[in-house]
Every structure is written in C-alpha cells, then in structure tokens.
Design brief:
The protein is built from 15 helices and 4 strands. The chain is mainly alpha-helical. The protein has one domain: Up-down Bundle (Growth Hormone, Chain: A), CATH 1.20.1250.20. The chain has a two-stranded parallel ribbon with strand order 1-4. A two-stranded antiparallel sheet has the order 2-3. Strand 2 and strand 3 form a beta hairpin. Helix 1 packs parallel to helix 5 and helix 12 runs antiparallel to helix 13. It is globular, with a radius of gyration of 21 Å. The two termini are about 25 Å apart. The C terminus is likely disordered.
Length: about 425
C-alpha cells in the first residue's frame, strides 16, 4: 500500500497497471486494425472465411486466460505470468511479419495472452484498503488508460501497415507489447507484494469459496455478455468492410485511412469517461447506487441504437459521409462504457481471496464465447443486405439488454456473501 496518488486521485499502482495494459491494447488493436484487411487483400482469403478466422482468433485470445488465470494464481504468481505472457505475445506479433507463419503467430499471441490478460485487473482491488470508496470507480479509470493504447494503435500500426506494408504495422504492435512488459517490471515497487507469489505460497486455501448464488449471478451476466459480444465485436470485423466501400472518407481533399476510424472508439472512451464518472457520482449522491446489471443493460441498448443508425444510413446512401461513422462510434462507445468496465469490475470484486486472476479469467470466458458467436454472425455479411445485417446486430444487442435487465444482483447474492453497496455499483 502507498499513500501516493496520481491520476484521478488513485494509487500510483493503478497507473502502472493501466500503462502496462495500455501497451498491450496498443499491440492488440494495432494488429486487429490490420487483420481482416491483411487476410482479404494480402493473403486473398475469402471474406466469410476471414471473418470466421477473425472470430476464432479473438475467441482463443479470450479462452486461454481461463487456464492462464489458474496458472497465475496457483503456480507462477501474477508478476511472472505477466512478464512471461507479455514476452510470448511480443514474439507472436513479430512472427506476423512472416506470411507462412500466419497461423503460428496468431496461436502464439493467444497463448501469451492467456497468462497476461487476467493477471492485471485482478491486482486492482489489492491497491486499496477495505471499504475505500475509490475502488468503485477504479475500473473505469483503468479502462481509460487501456484505451489510450487503443486510440494510438490504428493511427500508428494502421498507418504503417497501409502506407509502408503490413509487416511494418505488425512489427510496431510487437514493439508496443515489449514496452508494456518493461513498464510493468519498472513499476513493481508500486504494486501489491502479493502479485509476486502464487496464492498457495501466500497461505490461501486452494478451495474455491464461491457461494452458489454468486456463481448463478456471474453465470447469468456472462451469458448476457456472450450475446452482446456477438454484436459488439463487429466493429473490428464486418463494420470495417462496410466502411471500406460504403463510406466517403474524403475530408478537405485528404483520404482518411480506414484504420484511423477504429481509433474513434478508444478516443471517445478517453473523452467520455471523466464526465460520465462525475455524472454517476452526482446521481449516486441523489438517488443511491445503480445496480450494475441495470447499468449494463442501458449500455447494450445504446449499442443497439448505434447499429440502427448505421442500418438507416446504409439504406439511404451507397457512399455515406464519414461523419455518420463518427456519430456511430460516439453512440457505440457511450454504451460500451456502461457495460464492459462495469462487468469486469463486478467479476473482479466478487472474486474470493487468492482467486483474483481465475475469477477475472471467467469474465474473459464470456468474451471467448461471444467472439465465437461474433465470428459466426460475421459470416452472414455477404449473405444479407447491409441494412438488414446491421438491424440484426441491433437485435442481438437489444436481446442482451433484455437479459441483463432481468438479472437482479441483490436477489442472487446471499446476505452472508454480499459485498458492500459500493462494490455493486
């Protein structure tokens, strides 16, 4: 623990964690910005197969944390898991520079991600004393830092890939991943000492201490998020395919690279989070805390509205103005801020002592299943009209909103295992 504070009055260790994940996100978004274009334009893979490969890769990248979280908690400790996993991921990004090693590179990144991903956010709660009210907002602050990397990635990696060649973009993603590992190693003095050792060495019992009602809550949320990801993941899959041919990207005689539009999502995360947190605080002071699943349901509805907008635009114009794409990302991102950081925080704060990485990995299991679902949904792109396809995505997001609205955390968490109100906000 340390009394030193930095951004938003949070512990300095939070800055180290989100800077580390910022560079991991830079590498992931940088590679993702190029992946579908690389497969369809360079490797000449058919669109439906490319979408399925994209969905399978993102699914695997979120499945390996299930095993990696257990290894981090029980064998390596979170610190070593992050360093080893990050190094493996960097190697995978560099392998993307060699066309014959395309599938090997994807598999390497997914394996490294399994150790890396669940071990970072599971350290956040350990930065705070029990009852510290700041922890309720820490995950949104963390989400901002992470998305700085997401904003920079398409600008840097996308520009390099589109201008100088795909392999330069993939190489830049690898450099970013190495930067994240170095920052994490440098900032160890600001992080919880418990991250250096497996849970068993810390004296924690290996048995899972979840209550049945808490498990039911997490499963219900995970299933809802799985449905939501089927629509959400299309921003990196089929939406760029529409934007590549259905959007006029000229601005003052300058042709805006398509990959730059992907930066709008993390840019809006950065810009929208501070005022949104301030509004949530004022609202909580007046009306009390909002249940997390209700907040998540609102977010899913906003994402549905964003896809309805694009469905209308694609129905009216065959070459729509790029300003519509900006408006789409503004609505889409505002909804994302309601659902994804809230869900991650819910899983992390309900984790039993010593099982932080394992429980966060369960959150990524929902993303794994949702990514597989998104890959299957993506195969419908070439079989449906664009307006109808985007309405389908809106319907999927709306279904997720309904499922989340039907969940009542207070009814699932038994009184003897219920966390303080601030932890369900």
């Amino acid at each position: 623990m340390t009394d030193e504070r930095t951004w938003f009055g949070q512990p300095r260790g939070l800055t180290i964690l989100f800077l580390t994940n910022m560079w991991e996100t830079f590498s992931y978004y940088g590679m993702r910005a190029l992946l579908v274009y690389y497969m369809t334009k360079q490797l000449l893979i058919a669109q439906d197969k490319a979408s399925l490969i994209y969905g399978t890769y993102t699914a695997c990248a979120y499945f390996t944390p299930i095993v990696g979280g257990v290894i981090a908690d029980r064998v390596l400790g979170k610190r070593r898991a992050i360093v080893i996993g990050g190094t493996i991921m960097a190697i995978g990004h560099f392998l993307m520079a060699f066309e014959p090693l395309f599938y090997v590179a994807l598999a390497t990144i997914a394996l490294g991600n399994g150790l890396f991903l669940p071990s970072l956010p599971s350290q956040i709660d350990d930065l705070y004393e029990p009852g510290d009210p700041r922890v309720g907002w820490a995950y949104n602050v963390y989400y901002v830092g992470v998305n700085i990397g997401g904003f920079l990635a398409p600008l840097a990696c996308g520009w390099l890939g589109e201008t100088y060649g795909w392999h330069y973009g993939f190489g830049a993603a690898g450099v970013g991943m190495l930067a994240g590992v170095l920052i994490y190693v440098w900032g160890q003095r600001y992080l919880p000492a418990s991250a250096r050792h497996p849970a068993i060495e810390q004296g924690h019992a290996p048995a899972v201490r979840f209550g049945r009602s808490t498990v039911l809550l997490l499963v219900a949320v995970a299933l809802s998020v799985t449905v939501f990801r089927g629509a959400y993941e299309q921003v990196g899959n089929t939406l760029p395919l529409w934007a590549d041919t259905g959007v006029d990207k000229q601005a003052g005689g300058f042709a805006i690279p398509m990959t730059w539009f992907i930066s709008l999502n993390p840019l809006f995360v950065i810009l929208m989070t501070p005022p949104l947190l301030a509004w949530w605080r004022r609202r909580a002071d007046r009306r009390g805390e909002t249940m997390p699943t209700r907040r998540m349901a609102v977010g899913a509805l906003m994402v549905a509205a964003a896809y309805v907008l694009i469905a209308g635009v694609s129905a009216v114009w065959t070459n729509a103005s790029w300003t519509w794409l900006v408006l789409f990302f503004a609505i889409f991102t505002f909804g994302e801020l309601f659902i994804l950081p809230t869900g991650l925080g819910l899983f992390a704060r309900l984790a039993p002592k010593g099982l932080g990485a394992t429980t966060v990995a369960a959150w990524y299991l929902a993303i794994f299943a949702g990514s597989l679902f998104a890959g299957l949904v993506g195969t419908l792109w070439s079989r449906m009209s664009h307006p109808l396809y985007f309405l389908l995505l809106a319907g999927i997001a709306a279904l997720a909103a309904l499922l989340l609205r039907l969940i009542d955390p207070s009814a699932h968490i038994a009184a003897d295992e219920r966390p303080p109100t601030s932890e369900l906000s």
